[in-house]
Predict the structure of CRAL-TRIO domain-containing protein.
Amino acid sequence: MFRRKHASQFDSSDADQREAKINELKAALGPLSARNEKYCSAACLARYLEARNWNIAKSRKMLEESLKWRAAYRPEDIRWPEVSVEAETGKMYRAGFRDREGRTVLIMAPAKQNTSSHEGQIRFLVYTLENAVLSLPEGQEKMVWLIDFTGWTMANAVPIKTARETTNILQNHYPERLAVAFLFNPPKVFEAFWKIVKYFLDPKSIEKVKFVYLKDEESMKVMHKYIDPKVLPVEFGGKSNAVYNHEEYSELMTKDDIKMASIWTTEAKSDHVNHGISETLAPDVTSQHSLIAARAS
């Protein structure tokens, strides 16, 4: 008797199978505009596939929603002057160091919140994410978050509306961009807020969150596996005297705005080039000497 053949099991570690899935998703998307073509590099498609367990239909739906969001929100067109007021206290910035794998590190300090604008905070978050992607070295897709809860109280907690939109943007429009997030010295009162935030997070994201306490040697060792203590600022138990300087950081962001604009110029013929699987969203831009976001005082 004839037997029905079972579909072969997909192996995400198999380069040929991954490429076949990426090509299948690319074909399923159909014709794309110049900007969407640039965004939908092979590496980008792989991230959306990974986020949906390599299911073509679900990945396509997720990606199409992101393309709609990007077309309306235009995150790549946000420029520093528009969001600089949000950065004046150093509540979120790209660190002047990388982790042990060369990945971008974003430092956040919720206690340094300086505005009450929901839209302003969201646009600043998106700008910072786009800039972090811009600074990723070739072959790297993920970034590291270091969230400092020193001085944080419930009075600093973002409104649920902002927290919900933040998690939606991170999970649905920047999938597989987070390598690990360190929550540094969160107070006891944060546990109640964390229970609310966890409700909006998927299990994979929750697994990437590490609670780290300065007086807990074992938890510090976890962070040191990712970040060399030599480059960590002293406030995180490291040996670096680097501090956030808003004027210097503004100069850095102004220079990076120029790079961002040149990459996303839709008239450029390179917009129509199909990118290789190892390329990042911002190909051929590694921002070598502009990595110093905070310098020694």
